[in-house]
Amino acid sequence: MAECDCCGNEYDGAFELTQDGKTYTFDSFQCAIQQMAPVCPSCHCKVIGHGVDLGDRTYCCNHCAGQAS
Predict the structure, then answer these.
(1) Does the structure show a pLDDT above 80 at 44?
(2) pTM of the model
(3) For residues 55 and 34, what is the distance between their CA atoms, to the nearest angstrom?
(4) How is the chain split into domains, by residue range?
(5) How far does CA 43 lie from the centroid of its chain?
(6) Ramachandran region of residue 57, left (φ > 0), alpha (ψ -120 to 50) or beta?
C-alpha cells in the first residue's frame, strides 16, 4: 500500500507521477490534479487541459488569456 502525497490515504491502487525530477504518489486523479495542475491566473481554476501559454503564464482558455492582454 502506498500513501497519497496529497491526502495521506493509503491505497493499493496508487500511482506515481514525476515532474521536474520529483516523483509523487497519488491515490486518484483528483489528488494529482489538486497538487500538480497549474492555476489559471485569471479565473483561478485548475488547468487540466492543454491551456494557453502567454509569456510565462498558463491560462485555462483563450478567453482568460485575452483578459490578460
Answers:
(1) yes
(2) 0.81
(3) 23
(4) 1-36, 38-69
(5) 15
(6) beta
